[in-house]
Amino acid sequence: MLYGVIMAEPRRLLLNKGCLNCGSSFTNKSGLSYKRFEKQKYCSRQCRSKYLTKSANDRFDEKYIPEPNSGCWIWLGCYNSGGYGQIKTDTGMTYAHRFSYERFIGTIPAKYEIDHRCKNVACVNPNHLEAVTKLENNRRSNSKSAKQARQTHCINGHELFGSNLYLRKDGRRACRKCMYIRNKKRWLRSRQLQSR
Asked: What is the pTM assigned to this prediction?
């Protein structure tokens, strides 16, 4: 590199690409920049309009692949930051797993969510999807609150059930035996400090 002169990176050569609609290969004849040509998906405007006018069902069938070990249908189309697949329908963008459930099983009841029983958010297999309430979906998740809700014993091994269970004002659960031990230690410490 020369002083004061910034040299451009060498362009990577991309000879041809396959059209998403017709499958034919096409090259960069129009002189587009490399980045622009890299984003191009169709060989012509006619192929682009034909592809975009395909029904959502046809586009859905093209954008997943069955995984033989787990039985999941892995979504290959676009997805959001959480890893959930998305597909464009007549009404706009929707989640691919919700589209799959509505297509193969039926409508989703009001105030229900779709839960992935396989715990793979990229899966669109209708056999792995179930309509559940928000509360049940949160219980089945691996979030901190769901883990605490499934917890049956405190960290010291006391059972969180019946008379040993204490519900705090903020809704969290606590172990009465642990609270008793903790308060007794605190009381003994205060007595020791007073006797000095």
From this structure: 0.60
